[in-house]
Every structure is written in structure tokens, then in C-alpha cells.
Amino acid sequence: MGVIREVYDDLDTDVEFEEFEAAVNDKVEQMGGLADEETAAMLIAHELRDEEVNGIADIEPGMEDVKFLAKVVSIGEVRTFERDGEDEDGRVVNIEVADETGRIRVSLWDEMAAGAKENLEVGTVLRIGGRPKDGYNGVEVSASKVEEDLDAEVDVQVLDSYRVEDLALGLSDVNLEGKILDAGTVRTFDRDDGTEGRVSNLSVGDPTGRVRVTLWDERADLAEELEPGQSVEVVDGYVRERDGSLELHVGSR
Questions:
Q1: Can you list the positions of beta strands (E) in 136-244?
Q2: Main-chain phi, psi angles of 90, to 5 degrees
Q3: What is the tens place of the pLDDT at every residue in 15-47?
Q4: Which domains does the chain have, with CATH numbers?
């Protein structure tokens, strides 16, 4: 057995041996004879171990590419955008994934974005590789590689409807049933682009707790149509944090 195979067999990685061997040979060439195959194999193995994380909770901004296993809990809409100096529009879709340690938003770009809408489903288990970064809701991962793992299991419950106690920062596509505890009035404000925005707030409760619900723009008028004690369902909400408390927002993102 060669030294490259010996080092590879000691690794717990989803990288194929052929890919590992090619990386070792590239490393030997890059170092111009300063490293033999065994040394290069150990260096590549060290890099791979650094990439593997035990769970989503271990992912932090500033890390190099990370690899992890997680279950899809929500899939957003594909958005298009213009790239500077290019005729073809770019595409991106954000998905929420979770494991036993937490959840995180993952951005899929271009071909991966198109493939996500066609092939991904809530509950699918994925092996994800990508670079962590700071996002609006905390750490996010910009994916470079995504593969479905049919054999792996992730012990995460996918909810069709949430309770107040289930809410967590970064959740989107949230449906929640409860009763109106308090309803505010509509307020207007000026946006940076000169347009006028509208916003209102509700307090909604269920047997597990209460949460502030913020309604934006065309949804804002609903607050003046609702009364305390009325049963409601919040549909397609997303969770934000304000002054240390979680809020459920509906409308403009």
C-alpha cells in the first residue's frame, strides 16, 4: 500500500481517493521538491480536517471553505441580478438547512440555483461545501458544492407550522397560528430611495408564548382590521432580532 493511500485511509472524509491523490501530486509539484509524497499527503489531510466541522454550530465567519451535513428546512425563490461587465444575469436562491446543533442559510448560485428549484425538496439531506460569511441574519454559507446524501440521516424535525417557542433567528417561510393580543396602527416612513414605506405591529400569542409581528407595506393595513382575541395565521414570515428579542416579520425583506 502506498503512503498516499495510507494517509487517505486514516481520514474521515467524503473526498474521493482520486481527488485526494491529485491534490497530493499538485502539492508536491507546487513545493518544487521540498516535500515528498508522504509530507504532501499529510498537508492535504490537515487541510481537509480543518474544513470538516462537527456541526452547524461550529461554523464561523472568516473560516476557509467548510464542509458539513444538514437537512433542508426551507427553499426560497430564485432571484436574478445583473453582473458588472457581463451580459448574462446571475441567479441565486437561499435555502435554510439544519442539523442537531443549529441552522444556517446557504446561498446557491447560478446552475446550483436552477437545480435547487427543480430537484431540492424540504427534508432532503445534503453534503455542503462553501465559504462562511457574515450575513444580515448572522453567519451564512456561500456554497461551492452541494450533493444529496441518500444514505445519511439528520435528526431534525421539519415543521409545517411553528409555535412561538419554535422560533429562531434566521428562520424564514414561517407559518404560525395564534390569537391577537394587541394590534397597533399603521405608520409611514421615508426610505432612502425616496419612496414611502408603511409598517404596523401586532402581538400574537399561542400556548407556548407571545411574539411581536411586524407587517410591512401592503400588509400593514391588516393591523387595523384585526382585534384582540381574534384567531389568525401568520403566513410566510421571517424571524428578525430587535433589542434582544425575536420578532416575526411579514412583507418587505
A1: 138-148, 174-183, 187-190, 196-206, 209-216, 231-242
A2: -85, 160
A3: 788 888 898 888 888 887 778 888 888 888 877
A4: 3-50 (no CATH), 56-148 (2.40.50.140), 164-250 (2.40.50.140)
DSSP symbols for 57-108: GG--TT--SEEEEEEEEEE---EEEPPTT-SSPEEEEEEEEEETTEEEEEEE
Extract the C-alpha cell encoding 56: 452547524
Query: Letter for the amino acid at 149?
Result: D
- Residue by residue, DSSP assigns 180-209 as EEEE---EEEE-TTS-EEEEEEEEEEETTE
Question: Between the CA of residue 108 and those of 64, 90, 161, what are the distances in Å?
Answer: 17, 11, 25
**Nearest residue to 149 (alpha-carbon basis) of 171, 175, 120, 174:** 120
Output the nine-digit C-alpha cell for 33. 521538491
CA–CA gap between residue 230 and residue 101 (Å, rounded): 36
In this model, does residue 1 exceed pLDDT 60?
no
φ, ψ for residue 19 (rounded to 5)? -70, -40
157-187 pLDDT tens trace: 777 788 999 888 777 788 999 999 999 999 9
